[in-house]
Amino acid sequence: MDSPSPEMTAYQSYSSTSQDGDQLTTPATSPSIDSISSWSDIVKERKLSPEAAHFFGDLKNYLALGCLVFEDLTTLHERIQPDAGWQEITPLPIILLSDSTLSAQLAKLAQAGWLRVQSGRSALDARFHILRMHILPSDAGLHFLDRRDSGLWKALQALVSEVDVTPEAWQGRVREGTGRKFDQWATCDEGSLFYMFNKLPSPSPSIDAVTEKYTHEALEDLLDPASVLPGLKTVLYPYQRRSAGLMLQREAVPRLLLDPRLEQRQAPDGSTYYYNARDLLFLRQPRYQENCRGGILAETMGLVPPIRAKVGKLSDMAISTVNRHSVPWKVEFERIRHATGNEMTSCIAKLEQAPPMYEIPQEPRRWNRKTILPAPKSMTLAATTLIVVPRNLCKQWQSEIKKHVEDGALKVLVMEDLKCALPPPDELRTYDVVLFSRNRFEAEIRDGSDEQGRRMLATQLTCHCTYIGSTRERNCRCIRRDSLYDSPLKHLHFLRIIVDEGHMFGNHNSTAVTVANKLVKADHRWVVSGTPAKDLLGVEVDMSLTESMWQTPQTRDSRETILDQRRAFSAKEDVGGAAKSLGVLATSFLKIRPWCAEGDHERKEADWDDYIYRHEDLRKRTYSGFSTCLRRTLEAMVVKTRPEDVERDIELPPLSHEVVRLEPSFYDKLSANLFTLVLTANAVTSERTDADYLFHKNSAKARYQLVSNLRQSAFFWTGFSENDVLASVENSRRYLAKQDTSCTPEDRQLLGDMLAQADIVLSSDGWKAMSRSHELGLFVDAWPEESAQHWTFDGATAPLLTGVSQLLDAQKHINVRVGSDDLGEGLSGAGIRALAPTRHAAIKEEPEEKASKRKTVEKSPLTKSGLPTSSLDGEPILRRRSSSGSKTAKSSPKKISHGFKVIKPQKRTAVRRTTSLPAKLEAVPLDGPIFPATIQASLSASQPQNNSRKRRRSEVESLEYPVDSPYLQSHIVGTTSAKLSYLITQILKYHKDEKILVFYDGDNVAYYIAETLELLHINHEIYAKSLSAALKAEYVVRFDQEPHARVLLMDVKQAAFGLNLSSASRIFFVNPVCRPNIEAQAIKRAHRIGQTRKVYVETLVLKGTIEEKMLERAKRMTRTEHADAKALEDDGGVREIIQNARMLPVSQEERQGYGQMARLEEKQQLWGRDGWRETVSMLVARSPEKKRRRIITFDDITKDDEDARLVNEGEELPPGAKRRVLSFVDCTRPTHSSLEADEDSDNEPVMNDWRRRSSSGIRPSLPAGLRNDLMLPVVGHAEQLAPAWPQLSARATVFDPTTRAEKVRGMSIQDLLNDPGDDERASFQFEDRRTLLLKEIVSRL
Question: Cis peptide before 201, with omega less than 30 degrees from 0?
C-alpha cells in the first residue's frame, strides 16, 4: 500500500478505535486488498482541499446511521476472523457484488462523502458480514458539499430503508431472526384529530417563567384564588384563572420550540439526532421556531434610532424611557394615588400627549436614477385590544361586558354600524377595547380606495378628462390621492386582536383575513372558539347525547369510552376537513412559524399537509396517519382545559335527555297516510324503475324535498290539496285497471289498501278546510251557539274545530268589545269573513303582491308517477299576521305577508262604498252570488258603527268581563297536532318558573307554535334564519336578560353559532334532528357555564311513524355512516324504512267528535284569560288615532268608450253618437260620503288634500312644487264642485297639475282652451277640469 498522507494518518489515528470502544485492526493480507483504493487516492481523485480532507476524514462529523447485514457465502470468512474488529473501507467488499443496485448506491454515497463505511463480522455468528455506516448530517460541511445532486438523494432514500438500527447490530452481535429496519417515514402518532384535541394537556402556567416585573405581578394575582381582580364583577373559576394565566404567559414570555417538522431520534450508538422525514434530512443540532405569541382558546366553549438635536428635558427623557420599555405607567400612578392621594395629573397629561411611536423605512416599488425615497411610515403603539365577533353576537358581547366588568373599568368602543366611521388614530388608541362586528371589520377593506371603489395605480396616468365648455380647464374625474380612504387601523400597533368564532377565519381568501393581515399589526393574535374547526368538538359535546346511549353520563368512564371509540385515525374524517381548517388558521391568521413565512423575502412557508401526516412516499401523499408534528403544533397553539379538570372546579347541573313518544292524532295519521299513499303509488305505478321512481338515482332532488316535507308533516301539514289526492287516487286506479302491468299481487293489495285510506281523507270536512286555508286546527268547547256555525271548519260545534288564526280574530273581536252592551255583536259576520278562504270553492290561493302581475300557468297535479306536485314544492305559503305576543310584534319568521284573494258578489252597476274586509282580503267582482241573504245580513251587522271610538289605555285597564258572560265558558280543549298539544301543555306548566327553548325545523312549524302562544298570551320570540343579524342579536339578549321573555323559538340550523342561552332550562326538539353533532351543539346553547338549573331536554316523536324509525336508525348509525350520508335519506337503512312505509290504522271513533283531537292536559280559557288587557292595549298603541274625512268617489267614464271626447256647444254630432252629461255632487256638506281614513293615507291626491284644508277655513301652506299664483287655488267656486267619477280601483291614478300649470303660465285664454293635454292617461280628466275652470274664468271676466 502507498504510504498514507498526513490527513490519512490523522484519520487512522482516530479510526484505530471504534466509537463503542472496540479495537480496530487492519489485516496484513486480504484477497482483494491490492484492489482497494486508499483514502489518499480518493483525496487525489476528488481533488479535495486539506480542510475538506480533514473534515471528511474526521468521523466525529458523522452520525451513526445503522448497519447493513449480509450472510457471507464467499471464502472471505476464512481470511477475516470474527475477532478481527472493524475495518475502515472505501470501496465495497466482494460480498456486495451480488447486489449491483445496492452496491452502486452505496458506492456513490461513499465516494461523495455522504457516508463512511466500516466492515466487520458478527461476534455471535461469523456467517453474518456487517457494514456499519456513518452518515454526514445535513447541517455539517455545507461549504464542502453540494447537496443538489438528485441522484444522491434517490440513492440515500433507497439505502436507508435497508439499514438495521438495532444497537446489537451496531455492536457486532447479530444473529439470525433479529434486526429492525430504519423507519424513514415520519413517526406515526396513534390517534385521530378528535382524540388528540381532547387529550391536550390542561393549562399549567408557571409564575417563575415570567421575569418581567409587571407581568409577574399580574400573573400572581391572576392565579391566586383569593385575589379579586380589579375591574371585574365576576369571580373566575380556578380553571379559568389557569387558562387566562397561560395566555398571559404566552404573550409575555418568548419561547423557542423545536421545529415541529423535526423529530428527535436515537442513533444505534446511543447519540441523539434530529430527523425530517418528508425532506430526508439528518441533523446533528436541533432547529427552533419561536412559539406562537397567541393561539386558540378552545375552552368549552426595523427601528430608526432617533437623532438628538438638542439636550432634552428630564420629563421628555423620562417619557421616552417609559415608552421604550413599555412600562405600564397607569398601574404605577394608580398605586401612587392609593398610597399618597396624589393624582399625578400633569405627568399623566404629558404621557398621554407623547404616545410611544416608531418608524418603518419604506422602500420604493422600483429603483431608478430618479427614484425618491418615500417618507418612513410612523406607527403608534396602542394598548388596545381589537375584538371581532359575528354580527349576531355583538349585542351579546356588549351585555356580557356590562355584566362582568365594573363601570368605567374598560373604555369600550363598539363598531357595529356600517355607516359609522372609525375615529382617528389618536382617539382610537385611547380605547381599551374596540368591539367590531365582523361585517364592520370587513368594511375596512376599502382602505386605499375612493367612494366609487377606485384605487390608485402604481403609475399615475395622464388626465384625459373633457374640458369645461370652451375653457381650457378640465372637468377632472380622475382619482385623487386626497380622496382615498385611509383606515386608522394601519397607523396603530395594537396589543392584540381576538376573533370570536374564529373558525370563520379558516379561509385564507376571506375579506376578514385580508383586513387582519394587511391593516392590523398586533403583537398577539387569538382565536376564541369551542370548535376551532368544523366538526372538531370537545368530548363534552358528544356526551350531551345521553339518551339510551351511556349508562352513566358525565362520568370518566363514559368519556373514555367516547374517546376510545374515536381514537383510531380515519382517512375519511381526518384527511382534509378539520385538519385542513386548522392549517389555514395557523397559516393565514395566527401566523405561526414554520407554517407562515416571516416577511416578504423569506422562502415559501412549509406545506401543512406534507408534515402533519405520515406519508410513506417522498413524492406522493399517502396519508397513512398523523405524525408527531400535529400533536406538538396543537400543544403549542391551543389552550384547552380537559373536562375532568373543569369538573374539579365547577360542576354543571345535570342534564336529562328523553325521547317522548306521542300517540298521533287523527289528523296526524291522515298526514302520515297521505305521504305513505304518495310513496306507495309512486313505487307501484312506476314499477320501481326509471326516473319516475322516487328512489332512482336521477330523482335525488325530488326525493330530498319529499322526505323533508315528510319529516315536517309529523308536526302538521297542509301541503296536500283535495285535487292532489284525487289526482293521485285516479292515477293509481287507472294503473290497477291495466292488464299488461308487471305489478305483483302484493303490490296490488297494498295499493288497494292505500286507496281505501285516501277515501277517509277525502271524507273529512275538517281536513279539507285546513288544506284550503293552511291553518292548524284547534278544538273549542262551549262556543256561543248564535255564532258557532259561522266559525266551524267541519260543521260540528261540540267541539268546534277552527283555525288558530280564526281564533285570534275571534278573541280580538270580543276583547275589544268588553264593556259594551253586547259582546257578541258582529261575531257571526266576523266568522264569515274569517272562514271565507276555507268554505267556498271560488278561492284562489296566491300571493297577494303577485296577483296583479300573475300569468296563469296551469300545472299538472302530478309531476312523477303518483307524486303530487305539491309534495315536492316545500312548505305551503301561510297567511302571515303580526304577533302581539312578541314585544316587537314580529312572531312570524317571514317578513312578507301573504293573503288570499276572496271572491264575493258585487253589483257592477252601483258605485258605493264596499264593505271593508279584514287584512289581506280583497273584494273582486264575480258573476253570480255566493252568500245567502242571511249571511249578507250578518255581514252588515258586523260592520263597526260610525259612533264608535278608540279606547284609551287607561279605560282598557278598568274593564272586566261580566261574571255571567257565556264567553267565559269557552275553552280550548285540544289541537289537531299531538306534538303541539304536548308542547303547549309543557310550556303552560313551566313557563312561569323556567325559560323554555324550542328548536324547530321549518318556518311553518314556528308560525303555528307562535300563533298558539299568542292566543294563550305567552310572550315569545323567534330566532329564524330569515331575520337580520341585528334582530337576532337583540332577541338573544332580550331572552337571556329580560324576565318577561319566557319562550324562544329557534331554527335548529341556527343553534351552532356561539350563542349563550344558559337562562333556558327546558329544551324541546319539535322534530328529531337525527344528526348527533347538530343536536349536541343545540343542547350546549343552554347546558353550559352559567346554567344554575337542571336542564331537561325532550325530543318529540310520533309513535309508529316513519319519523320514529328514522330516529332509531340514526342512533344506530356510526360517525362514518353519518359522514357518508350527505342527507339522512342517503343512508341505506333510512331508504329502506321509507320504502317499506305502511298506513297507520284509523278507527271509527277517531273520525268524529273528541276522538279527532290531541287533548290538552288542561283546557284553556279562550276569552277573558289572564293578559287579555295587554293585548288590547297593544292594539290601541299600534293603531294611530284616525280622523274622519270626506272622501269623494267619482264615476269612471274614461274607460267605457276610448273614443269619447268633449264637444263644444253647437257642434254637430255624427249619426249614432252618444252624449254623456257629467253629473256633479256637492262636496261641501259634512255628512256626505264620509268614512274613516288614515291621517297619512296615500289614496288622496295632493290637490284634494289642499282643497279639503282650504274649505275648512284653514289656509294651509301649499304642497311642495305648487305656487300661490296657480290657477286652481284662485278659483273660489270651482273648489266646491267636482266631477263625480266612480272609483276605478284602490290604486287610482293621481292627477298632478304641477307640470301642467307651469306649461300654461303666460298663455292666453284661447291657447289654454285649444292646448291638448300631454298626459294620455289623464287627458280626459284634464280636459274636463280645464274646460270647467277656464269657462268659469271667462264668465267672470
Answer: no
Bridge partner list, 864: 867
pLDDT at 1234: 37
Is 19 in contact with 86 (CB distance < 8 Å)?
no
Q: How many residues appear in the chain? A: 1341
Distance of alpha carbon 885 from alpha carbon 1010, whole angstroms: 8
Cell of 630: 400535529
Q: What is the pLDDT of residues 461-516, one digit of tens each?
A: 778 888 888 888 888 888 888 889 999 999 999 999 999 887 777 777 889 999 99
Neighbouring C-beta atoms of residue 466, cutoff 10 Å? 9
Assess contact for 109 and 156: CB atoms under 8 A.
Answer: yes
Q: What is the mean pLDDT of residues 376-387?
A: 89
Rounded mean pLDDT, 1182-1197: 50
How far apart (Å, rounded) are the C-alpha atoms in residues 1268 and 1259? 12
- Round to whole Å and give the CA distance between 595 and 611: 10
pLDDT tens-digit readout, 786-804: 999 999 998 888 899 999 9
Task: Supply the pTM of this predicted model.
Answer: 0.72
Average pLDDT over residues 1290-1318: 47
Looking up cell 367516547 gives: 562
Taking phi first (over 0 means left), then psi (-120 to 50 degrees means alpha), and beta for anything else, what does residue 498 get? Answer: beta
Q: Are 269 and 64 in contact (CB under 8 A)?
A: yes
Q: Enumerate the H helices of 224-294 as residue ranges.
A: 238-252
What one-character DSSP code corresponds to residue 368? -
* CB-side neighbour CA atoms (13 Å) of 935: 16
pLDDT confidence band for 718 (50 / 70 / 90): confident
Rounded Cα gap, residues 308 and 286, in angstroms: 43
Cell of 1303: 306649461
Q: Are 1157 and 779 in contact (CB under 8 A)?
A: yes
Closest-CA residue to 232 (of 428, 459, 408)? 408
Please, what's the largest Cα pairwise distance for the chain?
A: 151
How far apart are the C-alpha atoms of 587 and 507, rounded to whole Å? 10
Q: By CB neighbour count within 10 A (0-12 exposed, 13-18 middle, 19+ buried), where does 853 fall?
A: exposed
Contact of 938 with 829, CB cutoff 8 Å: yes
Closest by Cα among 876, 862, 760 to 1148: 760
d(CA 1264, CA 1245): 13
